[in-house]
Specification:
2 helices; alpha+beta; 34% helix; 59 residues
Length: 59
């Protein structure tokens, strides 16, 4: 999955970017308080993308 597509799905679910670090971005879902790191690669493998979406209740 492309990083932009994953970020779009996260934003639609109400998540927002908390901060950027060297190799990861920190995303938070304010409704649940869940926090997840997202790698800053242009392509993110499907299993990891699904895990991030599930963790942030963005599925």
């Amino acid at each position: 999955m492309k990083k932009k597509e994953l970020e779009r799905k996260l934003r639609i679910a109400g998540c927002y970017l908390k901060r950027e670090e060297a190799s990861h971005s920190i995303w938070i879902n304010p409704k649940t308080g869940s926090i997840e790191t997202v790698p800053r690669h242009s392509d993110i493998k499907e299993p990891l993308a699904r895990k991030i979406l599930k963790s942030l209740n963005a599925e």
